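Aim 2, interim progress: modelling of the tryptophanyl-5'AMP-bound target.
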Amino acid sequence: MKVLLSGIQPSGNLHIGNYLGAIKQWVELQKSYRVFISIVDLHAITVPQDPRELRKNTLELAALLIACGIDPKKSVLFLQSHIPAHIELGWILNTLTPVSELERMTQFKEKKERAGALAGLLNYPWLQAADILLYRPDVVPVGEDQLQHLEFTRTLARKFNNRFGKTFNEPKALIPKETARIMGLDDPTKKMSKSAPSPNNYIGLLDSPEEIRRKIKIAVTDSDKEIRYDIKTKPAISNLMTIYSAFSELSHGAIEKRYQNKGYAQFKNDLAELLVKKLMPIQQKYRELSRGKKVIKILQDGAKKASLVANKTLLEVKKKVGLLQ
Ligand code: TYM
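Predicted structure of the complex, ligand included:
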């Protein structure tokens, strides 16, 4: 069976961009891949985190992923910090990484403005490469913003193989066609983001129906009244149409037809109700899961399964590099 791996930070406010860009694909591909999903808590602390919030967000994210459809019977769901092999392989990969490559990463350049240029933020990409390469995945389904990290991972795999002999395959990024980059509701020129200054930027998977309706109502639109998909001249309505399309399975063309001669108000109203309808079952399942200790047990089981695979790869790598057993 082919292997799929992906990761997600427990930084709170999981939103429909994360869902449509990444999580939805993970759920769909569980049928045909052996799936590893890592909650990357060590990556989350590359920007300051309140310890209590981090613990809460980590458990919340695990429960939400399961509520979205990640099935622990089919997929391995685990915390990055439970598998020390990530750091060990990361360190080895770090010794093959030019500082200049780390410094030119878009995410580093953006985040250092907000969080300061801490070494952890600079070193983020080699830990991500280790997250991936330990499990020798065929595919890594991510949103478009992760492409640069994926390319960096592939380069490191190649570099390691050239120096120490064939060890890693070069995993392919799997980017969804329509939903690779969901834009902010308050600014369609920037991606929807957990760390946006205003919560009006995103629809959180745990937003209440009232919040969803309010946020869609005030979402930015374009100057004319037409419901037409044109990313260049109508970026705001095109983004809302992409969200509508992804949750309804209707094509952009079908949406245009449905809303011909109808204004933004009707379209927005229907979009809000669609989101409420699609997110409520996820929230219901999330609330059920949050009550017991089931999620902790799932993460413990996940760590056992993930460590078997990760430690095997790490042992092979250590031997190749010349570290004594
Ligand atoms: P993170 O936690 O920021 O985001 C998780 C996933 O959501 C996607 N995403 C989006 N997709 C479409 N539109 C958006 N507006 C949007 N915002 C976020 C991201 O592309 C991602 O797929 N560095 C990673 C976490 C990571 C990882 C890994 C991923 C660590 N190790 C190994 C894959 C494999 C990150 O910060 O994702």
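Residues 264-291 form the longest helix (28 residues). The mean pLDDT is 96.
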